[in-house]
Amino acid sequence: MFRHRSDLPLGHDTTSHFLPGMVGAMVFLAAIALAGAMVLQMVMDRWQRDVSGTLTVQVMPVTGEPARAATETGRRVDAAVEVLLATPGVGAARPLDQQQIAELLEPWLGSREVLVDLPVPRLIDVTIRPGFSVDLVALGSRLTAVAPGTSLDDHQVWLSKLVRLGHGLELLALAVVGLVAAAMAATVVYATRTGLAVHRPVIEVLHLIGAQDDYIARQFAHRSLVLGLRGGLVGLALAGPVLGGIGWLTARMEGALVPDFSLGPLHWAALAALPVAAGYLAMLTARITVHRTLARMP
Amino acid sequence: MREIATENDSVVRFESVGLRYGQGPEILQDITFALPPGSFHFLTGPSGAGKSSLLSLMYVAQRPSRGMVALFGRDVSAARRKSLPAIRRRLGVVFQEFRLLDHLSTLDNVALPLRVAGVSEDEIKKHVPELLAWVGLANHLHSKPPTLSGGQKQRVAIARAVINRPELLLADEPTGNVDDRIAMRLLHLFVELNKLGTTVVIATHNDRLVRRFRFPRMHLEFGQLAFFEPSGDSDTLEEG
């Protein structure tokens, strides 16, 4: 890869063997962390997209003799829908029927037969037109006037908690990528300093025949670029099947609790850039290290 | 690096230079001299007199403990590291222990000063084999130093020192490992370079060469430097 003439025998160094392995392991970890951050970002975007622009109105059931209570509850729901549809900005107000409510509650309360006898609140799914905002306080007052005990949920409370958690996890994942990069840079610094010490006699000769520090630094930098790229490609080659496997497993799981782990082309492109980033980080680190170390020489 | 006023624009100028290693005694004391451009000097003296140290001050491998060393009219005693490569590219040095790079071929070793100076590969492929043929190593272009004899290594070292037509050539025992015939041939190479304008200083123990090639002699002993004019067996002493 990248045949390049070098005056320093860097190809025979021990670092040539361990550096690609270290970089490979780090790129593997960085790829997993970066993929995690990207999936979290996707999930949060989807939540916000799904939830923003919607409201849920909860009409409390009327208690008493079952037939009358059901009728009265139905009347309140209709009245609430009327209020909602009369509100500027409201695009649609769709009451959920008993069967849909039972489906929602089934995972927590068991069979639907039990639910028939329970006084469960009625829900109205409200869609707000794009670009409109609704005065929730005023709407709430109007709703309670026609249907006492009615509450309004714009999902912001739980959404903000979820988004905060998601952002926290995303930052954590990015911090892992940063830590991996820092650890890799430290490894390259160590490897470069070792190389400088090992090849000091050769470097002295190069200096004595007029080589500038950058002439030597370029040779170390090129070697580090090659080793970093090589290790990065190995790390990515290992991470690819792992991420693909996780995506396949999550796709097979039912329910909305596990986020969809399938990455898009842009995400894969970002992951594919990791070996290049690793190579350039190694190159830059080596170059700076050589300059700093040589500047301290007499 | 400051410009200094020099007599006759000396290539090398030492003023009251002293050199000691660590806390040891001064091995060079109050050395003062100036070498004009195009001059040729032998540097003689017993083993351990400090010939290699004096040369190393000239190729700025170390700095003097006191005094001033100037090369090409520029004070290098306290010059910044960054300014040294430009000075060193005007020098050619034959080190006593050759200091060839064992992992590089003969051709690549000799090409080093050109590559460091950014000379094109075409030029290198043209000039380096030519010079190696001249020093009798045409059949060893791709040999590596560990496979060469002492004399062959020495010739590679000399070829590396002269490949970039240096303005100042410093050679530390350049004929120490070769027979008289090769020694004469190498000395003729130095003389030819000198005729082209290169200032030459050759440290040697070889009295026959010093007598044969009638050039002035710098003699170093007990840390002091003295100059002798060439006059066959009856050298005359000049103040250093």
Give a structural overview.
The complex is a heterodimer of chains A (298) and B (240). By secondary structure, chain A is an alpha+beta fold. In chain A, 70% of the residues lie in helices and 7% in strands. The two termini of chain B are 26 Å apart. Chain A binds chain B through residues 7, 9, 12, 201-202, 204-213, 215, 295, 297-298, and chain B through 59, 61-63, 81-82, 84-86, 88-89, 91, 93, 99, 101, 103-104, 108, 112-113, 115-117, 160.
**Rg calculated over all Cα atoms of chain B:** 18 Å
Number of strands of chain A: 4
Tally of alpha and pi helices of chain A:
9
Strand order of the largest sheet of chain A: 2-3-1-4
SSE-based structural type of chain B: alpha/beta
**Could you report the average pLDDT of chain B, rounded to the nearest whole number?**
88
Ranges of chain B where pLDDT stays below 50 over 5 or more residues in a row are: 1-6, 233-240
The helix content of chain B, as a percent range, equals: 25-40%
Query: How many DSSP helices of chain B?
Result: 7
Determine the N-to-C terminus distance of chain A. Answer: 35 Å
Q: What is the average of the pLDDT values of chain A?
A: 86
Oligomerization state of this entry? heterodimer
The string of secondary-structure elements of chain A, in order, is HEHEHHEHEHHHH
Portion of residues in beta strands of chain A equals: 5-15%
Largest sheet of chain A at a glance? Answer: 4 strands, antiparallel
SS strand fraction of chain B: 25-35%
| Major sheet summary line of chain B | 7 strands, mixed
The best one-word shape of chain A is elongated
